[in-house]
Amino acid sequence: MHEILVLYYSHHGAVKQLAQYVARGINDAGASARVRTVPRVSTVAEAVEPTVPDSGAPYAELKDLEECIAVAVGTPTRFGNMAAPMKYFWDGTGGLWMKGALAGKPAAVFTSSSSMHGGQETTLTSMMLPLLHHGMLIVGLPYSEATLLNTTSGGTPYGASHVAGVAGDQPITDDERKLCIALGKRLATIALKLAR
Q1: SS3 helix, strand, coil % of the chain, rounded to 5?
Q2: Is the dihedral of CA 62, 63, 66, 68 positive or negative?
Q3: Nearest Cα residue to 38 out of 27, 25, 46, 49
Q4: Other CB atoms closer than 10 Å to residue 32's CB: what's the count?
């Protein structure tokens, strides 16, 4: 079974839920989702995260990127950019870049923000930058996904998204859920064709 990495960072839980829907789409398309997260980044140099998270998905390792045929990356929006923990993870992938380990693999991105104008699309493109430097092939959501034309909540052609509200308490809408699943299916379908 070909595996696809679903790599995310979630602070309040919304991106974790999006990751689960993306994983569902991957599994529905006939691949197997490998769900991983990244630890928080501390401003205190001595602070360390446990080797294994207390709950939820295990922390990602570089071998997860190498072993999987594709990757879906998700992070909350931070001032129109990816969150620091995800950036920190990608900053440590230089060895993979040097040997071209990810070149030619498909990748997709997803995010959550507090408002409709919270910088979702710039966050999605900020996540694409290291993927492009690695030579990965970016997979978005085409407008042939009818939900993308009708959503009044999250969803962009750059990737799946969610509007969490200022308090982070807005549930994932049906449209946002559908688009996450569609993104996972699209990524898996393309990855499986390339893996033949």
Answers
A1: 40, 20, 40
A2: negative
A3: 49
A4: 14
Task: Give the lowest-confidence range in 18-32, 37-51, 86-100.
Answer: 37-51
54 within 8 A of 38, measured Cβ to Cβ: no
Between CA 163 and CA 149 the distance in angstroms is: 16
Report if pTM > 0.70.
Answer: yes
- pLDDT tens-digit profile of 146-172? 999 999 999 999 999 999 998 889 999
**Which helix (DSSP H) or strand (DSSP E) does residue 56 occupy?**
none
State how far the Cα of 161 lies from the Cα of 155, in Å rounded to an integer. 5
The radius of gyration of the chain from alpha carbons, rounded to an integer in Å, stands at 16
Q: Tokens for 14?
A: 């919304």
Residue 33 parent element (H or E): strand 32-37
Please state, in angstroms and rounded to a whole number, the distance separating the CA atoms of residues 36 and 49.
15
